[in-house]
């Protein structure tokens, strides 16, 4: 059973007269200046095209019709500002369950259609409802999407648009409509209803159209159509009748229609009457967020404030105290204008971590997460599938949720290799890899891909050291490359030649009791040509890096690795590569965060 679909009431009780004259209408919709061409990640665009080609919507719309998508709100003129894009995006992102796991692209790009739902009030004081064929026989109001032809000099002719759609759906003429009143605006992020059927994701202006004909006359004129089943439902236009009707039928009603009824009660009766509706059917289905459109605001800000998608960071109980990764991720999401928030979950209890991940698998707004020590191996266990590199070492640092399944990846190796490559070419080099734990486990694979000559793994735990060497022994032998294991206690007697040193241990971090991964006096065995790379990012310069700088070595702070592995995770989760400038901005932003926290 899915959780009940939710409608958010953004505006209510408006009672705004609608006219095609901008001087007479107290609410307006106007076109914004066209921005840059719409671009989606190629894989997502391909899925949109395939879904649209197979859709029955093509029989109703041209191959590339335009419709309106909400852009922002101007409080001073009570104007919704919209932009136009092909209707296929409204359909694919707003209606198909296929896009549940990536519908944040619609939010990110402003691809949530501004539609309308209109309640009908007849001359004999009845409210009329239809039964939508294309919404699993849901009880609904009327009207629909704005077309390109509804614009006049950059402004939507709202009354003409509503008359056009209502006349077609109800089989009436414009002379039957005496006036139209706007009562508010609602938004539903839900796509699937309780019966696992599709339900539009859209912003809907809510209206009431007053007719000069009776319910009986309207019922005689109404005909079955492609959208509606035969016959209308009529109820008395009276508070108790309306609330009883919703109580009896809300599970079979369009969630947008319930929102329209709320705004109607608030506008034509009272907020008390509207809140009776919430009290009757519960707050799980209706959420009132009236303050969100009380000022100038963009649609992305509205979505972020209503239902932010979640990207997680899982670590030990202290992770929120020392990690700057959440700030980095939130800076990235803000930079990309994505309504996603990075949240941390910290625990020292293995079962708590497993329970958290199992619960998030069923959270429609959970998109995935990064995993820090010590839970990379534990998190591997909840993945439905994992990439070969992560599978081989049974360790993940990234989980991406697709189609309610967890896909496991390990971007640590890719991240450290990219950060080192900023300073030196890895091919032909000898590497000293400090640590054989979760963070190090995919590093040999990616160093080998870059043509490394030899790797010496150093750890204080013999079993872990030998296990990591055994994992890669065969592939290194086939590539005719060297792979050794050395205990940390033996380093003073046999410090290996190293062109690159990588610290994958927590030593030197603010949460670690150990200041360094080995006796730093042993750095006398390296030359200034050696590159020292950290995975520890807090502090910015660890004791290891500080000593290396004294020698004159090039150093790669852990922030480089943090950003590079995050960029890999971002591409896996969202299908989009970060640019060089974006990664540089993240490095500088994270450095500033560290600096501010250390003061």
Describe this structure in words.
With 599 residues, the protein is α/β, with parallel strands linked by helices. The protein folds into three domains: 7-14 and 115-144 and 153-302, Alpha-Beta Complex (Nucleoside Triphosphate Pyrophosphohydrolase); 309-410, Leucine Dehydrogenase, chain A, domain 1 (Rossmann fold, 3-Layer(aba) Sandwich), CATH 3.40.50.10860; 413-556, Rossmann fold, CATH 3.40.50.720. It is built from 20 helices and 27 strands. The strands form five sheets. Strands 1, 2, 6, 7, 8, 11, 12, 13 and 14 form a nine-stranded mixed beta sheet that branches. The protein has a six-stranded mixed beta sheet with strand order 17-16-18-20-21-19, sandwiched between helices. Helix 16 links the parallel strand 22 and strand 23. Helix 11 crosses helix 20, helix 15 crosses helix 16 (443-449) and helix 19 (558-574) packs across helix 20 (580-598). It is elongated, with a radius of gyration of 30 Å. The two termini are 50 Å apart. 46% of the residues are buried.
Index terms:
599 residues, alpha/beta, Nucleoside Triphosphate Pyrophosphohydrolase, Rossmann fold, 3 domains, nine-stranded mixed β-sheet, 24% strand
Give the C-alpha Rg: 30 Å
- What is the molecular shape? elongated
From the structure provided, what is the oligomeric state, counting identical versus distinct chains? single chain
Main sheet record: 9 strands, mixed
The rounded distance between the terminal residues' Cα atoms is 50 Å
Helix/strand-derived category reads: alpha/beta
Poorly predicted spans: 192-196
CATH homology-level superfamily of the largest domain: Nucleoside Triphosphate Pyrophosphohydrolase
Give the strand tally.
27
What is the mean pLDDT? Answer: 87
Helix content: 25-40%
- The CATH architecture of the largest domain is Alpha-Beta Complex
Number of separate domains:
3
Strand content: 15-25%
**Count of separate DSSP helical elements:** 20
CATH fold descriptor of the largest domain: Nucleoside Triphosphate Pyrophosphohydrolase
Briefly, what CATH class of the largest domain?
A: Alpha Beta
């Amino acid at each position: 059973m899915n959780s009940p679909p939710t409608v958010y009431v953004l505006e209510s009780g408006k009672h705004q007269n609608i006219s095609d004259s901008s001087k007479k209408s107290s609410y307006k919709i106007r076109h914004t200046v066209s921005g840059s061409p719409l671009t989606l990640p190629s894989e997502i665009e391909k899925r949109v095209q395939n879904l649209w080609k197979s859709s029955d919507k093509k029989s109703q719309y041209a191959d590339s019709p335009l419709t309106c998508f909400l852009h922002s709100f101007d409080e001073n003129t009570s104007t919704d500002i919209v932009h136009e894009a092909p209707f296929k995006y409204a359909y694919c992102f707003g209606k198909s369950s296929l896009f549940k796991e990536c519908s944040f692209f619609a939010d990110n790009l402003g691809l949530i259609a501004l539609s309308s739902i209109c309640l009908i009030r007849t001359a004999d004081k009845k409210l009329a409802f239809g039964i939508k064929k294309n919404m699993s026989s849901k009880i609904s109001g009327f009207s629909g999407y704005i077309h390109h032809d509804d614009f006049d000099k950059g402004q939507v002719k709202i009354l003409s648009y509503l008359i056009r759609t209502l006349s077609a759906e109800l089989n009436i003429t414009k002379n039957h409509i005496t006036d139209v009143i706007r009562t508010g605006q609602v938004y539903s992020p839900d796509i699937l209803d309780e019966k696992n059927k599709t339900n539009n994701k859209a912003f809907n202006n809510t209206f009431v159209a007053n007719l000069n004909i009776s319910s009986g006359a309207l019922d005689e004129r109404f005909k079955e159509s492609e959208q509606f089943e035969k016959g209308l439902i009529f109820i008395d236009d009276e508070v108790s009748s309306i609330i009883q009707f919703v109580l009896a039928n809300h599970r079979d009603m369009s969630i947008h229609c319930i929102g329209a009824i709320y705004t109607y009660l608030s506008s034509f009766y009272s907020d008390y009457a509207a809140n009776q509706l919430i009290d009757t059917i519960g707050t799980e289905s209706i959420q009132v967020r009236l303050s969100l459109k009380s000022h100038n605001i963009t649609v992305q800000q509205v979505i972020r404030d209503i239902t932010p998608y979640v990207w997680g960071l899982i670590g030990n109980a202290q992770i929120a105290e020392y990690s700057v990764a959440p700030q980095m991720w939130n800076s990235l999401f803000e930079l990309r204008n994505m309504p996603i928030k990075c949240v941390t979950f910290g625990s020292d209890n293995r079962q708590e971590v497993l329970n958290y991940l199992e619960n998030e698998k069923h959270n429609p707004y959970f998109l995935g997460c990064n995993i820090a020590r010590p839970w990379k191996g534990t998190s591997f266990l909840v993945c439905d599938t994992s990439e070969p590199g992560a599978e081989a070492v049974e360790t993940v640092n990234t989980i991406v949720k697709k189609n309610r399944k967890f896909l496991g990846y390990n971007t640590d190796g890719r991240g450290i290799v990219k950060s080192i490559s900023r300073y030196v070419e890895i091919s032909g080099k000898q590497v000293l890899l400090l640590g054989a734990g979760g963070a190090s486990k995919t590093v040999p694979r990616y160093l080998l891909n870059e043509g490394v000559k030899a790797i010496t793994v150093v750890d204080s735990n013999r079993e872990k050291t030998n296990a990591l060497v055994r994992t890669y022994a065969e592939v290194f032998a086939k590539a005719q490359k060297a792979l050794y294991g050395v205990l940390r206690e033996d380093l003073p007697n046999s410090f290996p030649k190293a062109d690159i040193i990588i610290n994958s241990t927590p030593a030197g971090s603010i949460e670690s009791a150990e200041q360094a991964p080995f006796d730093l006096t042993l750095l006398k065995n390296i030359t200034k040509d050696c590159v020292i790379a950290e995975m520890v990012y807090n502090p910015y310069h660890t004791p290891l890096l500080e000593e290396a700088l004294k020698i004159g070595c090039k150093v790669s702070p852990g922030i480089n690795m943090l950003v590079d592995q995050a960029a890999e995770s971002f591409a896996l989760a969202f299908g989009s590569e970060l640019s060089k400038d974006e990664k540089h901005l993240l490095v500088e932003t994270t450095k500033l965060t560290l600096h501010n926290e250390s003061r």
